[in-house]
Design brief:
- 4% of the residues lie in helices and 54% in strands.
- It is mainly beta and 160 residues long.
- It has a domain of 104 residues.
- The strands form 3 sheets. Strands 3, 4, 5, 6, 7, 8, 9 and 10 form an 8-stranded antiparallel sheet that branches. Strands 1-13-12-11 form a 4-stranded antiparallel sheet, with no helix packed on it.
Amino acid sequence: MTACSGERIADWERIIWTAVGGVLAVGLPDEVRVVVGSHAGVGIVDVTKADRAIRLHDNDYRWFDEERMAILIPDGRGGQEVVAAMGLAGGQLPTSTHDGWRCERTDLGATLVRDDQLLKIADQEEFRACGFSPRGSVFILATSPNLTVLKRDLALEQKL
């Protein structure tokens, strides 16, 4: 079971906790999209709506570029967007934010830490990825069967 334990900290809020099944890699190209590659293809989650926006079926893994550790998605202009990813084959996502949040993988899932603030995200399934979006407003923890997405409002955070 996945859960966020502890109080709401610095406006981090769990907006998605969903069973995906067969997660292989996850990328965060921006503050709006989470890209999830699985055995069945690619799903693109719209963080603003907390819902899957696009599903691209591809069970022969053409969506994954192992050399660049990236997920390839259509860019809408006939080309491909290359999204840096982390997952079963390796890769890396940002592990810190400009304002001092760090994520750490733990035996129980992941932990977000900043100064004396601590937020534990529990998911004991087989680890795939954890990390932040480029500006640090979104955090993901992915395991083989699950995706957990936390979000915060950076404008509100700057007022604190």
